[in-house]
Amino acid sequence: MTNAHAARDIDTSRPHSARMYDYYLGGKDHFEVDKQAAETVAAAYPAIFVCARENRAFMHRATRVLAREHGIRQWLDIGTGIPTEPNLHQVAQSVVPEARVVYADNDPLVLKYAERLMRSTQQGRTTYVQADVNDPETLLNAPQLAEILDLDKPVALSLNALLHFVTDAQDPYGLVARLLSVLPSGSALAVSHCTPDFDPTTWEKVTSIYNNAGTPVQFRSQKNVSRFFTGLELLDPGIAVGHRWRPDAAEDAATTEPPTDAEVSLWTGVGIKP
User: Is the N or C terminus of the chain more exposed, i.e. has fewer CB atoms within 10 Å?
Assistant: First the structure.
């Protein structure tokens, strides 16, 4: 599909989760319908902007930790969303210029902006695959993936703010297990996942807003997020609220007042495949 075709396929008559997330991050790649829906969420959960910011910060930290401390040189990032700099490959390649990253998303909107994801270092490589996490076989058999990633060497599977859009009826645990099954020992799983644990009433409202807008969601408890890491060796500090997973001194210095757990409402974790 070309970018022109993707542009024609974009539905601007209803809100879209990726464009709403762009609004939460202060981006410009959204429409009025997305802004209105996002502001409805913000009215119920004013800290949604904090949650989105901390989600991005976790991705940056997890990527740097895997590159610096665990020798990861390859990433498979599913549910990429609208590119927001610095993107994952930029973070990884700032540590290891030879890093290789495959981005995957099922949304034609992301394809429209995919050229932003291709600006790799000379030593590294990046590509984009139009694929759905609910169809792992198509993704894993994509020729673009085979061109970039060597599945005989460790790969970090990055699932940031994705799995709460995969309901239990879609077998999220089975999907994650299938994706991990093709990755060798030393590979990693990085997950961030919104949770109702700290404020169930507010997150019930958020769930209704997304469901009523045509985007099914299922926000999970710490216990249920932990299940995604079955069989993996969790890095310290285990399953932690986003801003508490390996906090960065420079980030903390730039923050006048740290957010509360309820404001962040995001479980995060990184596990290594033995």
Answer: C
